[in-house]
Design brief:
Number of strands: 14
Shape: globular
Distance between the termini: 79 Å
Strand content: over 45%
Structural class: mainly beta
Order of helices and strands: HEEEEEEEEHEEEEEE
Radius of gyration: 20 Å
Oligomer: single chain
């Protein structure tokens, strides 16, 4: 009898967590950040995307990067767009796909077939190389990271707030 009750309680355990879930829409306390970028017309720079995930473990993500007109991702003829994975994700040997959806809007997707988690709970995850048009006017421009969804090991998504990116273009 005790065994049956134990199995019954174990079977109900997942439903208990769902009932007390204070985050039913997949929101999370984890945050994405991007430092402001200063560059010169016609020059390249790096856009570093960092993840702070104090309470969650993730094994992949997708996000949309909207760049302002005149700024684009650097293209590498052999492998597409230029990027570098940080040590937090490199050890998982993930697959990375970056595709331009429309002018200036790029979808970035990183996933691990064996669901190896992103290591640690703070710091850069991916660095993208960008190039500024030589004819771009000096000034401040804004881009965004949106549609940010990180994948947990249980294959549930965690939605994160959009992030505004500031670009300062000098002479």
């Amino acid at each position: 009898m005790k065994t049956k009750i134990l199995f019954f309680l174990i079977a109900l355990l997942p439903f208990t967590f769902m009932a007390v879930n204070d985050n039913p829409h997949g929101k999370t306390t984890s945050k994405i950040s991007v430092s402001p970028i200063t560059t010169h017309r016609g020059d390249t720079a790096v856009l570093v995307i960092s993840l702070s995930n104090p309470d969650e473990t993730y094994n992949g993500f997708q996000m949309d990067l909207q760049l302002p007109e005149g700024i684009s991702l650097c293209n590498n003829r052999r492998s597409g767009y230029q990027f570098t994975l940080s040590d937090r994700v490199r050890k998982a040997q993930p697959s990375v796909v970056i595709k331009e959806q429309k002018a200036g809007l790029f979808r970035i997707l990183l996933f691990s077939f064996n669901q190896t988690p992103i290591i640690g709970n703070s710091g850069p995850i991916i660095t993208l190389s960008i190039i500024t048009d030589a004819n771009m006017k000096k000034g401040k421009y804004h881009g965004t990271l949106s549609n940010i969804i990180f994948n947990k090991k249980d294959n549930k998504g965690a939605n994160m707030e959009d992030v505004e990116i500031e670009f300062k273009v000098k002479k």
